[in-house]
Specification:
The chain contains no helices and 11 strands. The protein is mostly beta strands. The strands form 2 sheets. Strands 2, 4, 5, 6, 9, 10 and 11 form a 7-stranded mixed sheet that branches. A 4-stranded antiparallel sheet has the order 1-3-8-7, with no helix packed on it.
Length: 126
């Protein structure tokens, strides 16, 4: 079955960097778009970035522009989120999600993402 598993979260100081990974299985990653989202306590889930099978990238959140980047390695069935210059307000659970359909472009519409991982906690604190 389709599975997505995030890893790499942890505690980081403000201004630091951290990369998290989304290991996928049960489908051909090279035919799918995958997005990264986050959810902080008391806040709605926020879309961050999305990667298409063709290598295209879509930015959803202006708050991470210039600080976060997305990449993929289809051979490793893995999508990455690289976070730089982290701030306390970046503290959240980070999720990867699978866009429905085959060969479609990224969407900012959350219901278009049909499968989700369990998330990985990122805490930014002195």
């Amino acid at each position: 079955q389709v599975q997505l598993e995030e890893s790499g979260g942890g505690l980081v100081q403000p201004g630091g960097s951290l990369s998290v990974s989304c290991l996928t299985s049960g489908f051909s990653l090279d035919q799918k778009s995958v997005g990264w989202f986050r959810q902080a306590p008391g806040k709605e889930r926020e879309g961050l970035l999305c990667s298409t099978k063709s290598g295209g990238k879509t930015l959803y959140s202006h708050s991470v522009k210039g600080r976060f980047t997305i990449s993929r390695d289809n051979a490793k069935n893995t999508v990455y989120l690289h976070m730089n210059n982290l701030k306390p307000e970046d503290t959240a659970v980070y999720y990867c999600a699978l866009r429905s359909g085959t060969g479609v472009e990224c969407s900012a519409y959350e219901p278009d993402f049909e499968s989700w991982g369990q998330g990985t906690q990122v805490t930014v604190s002195p």
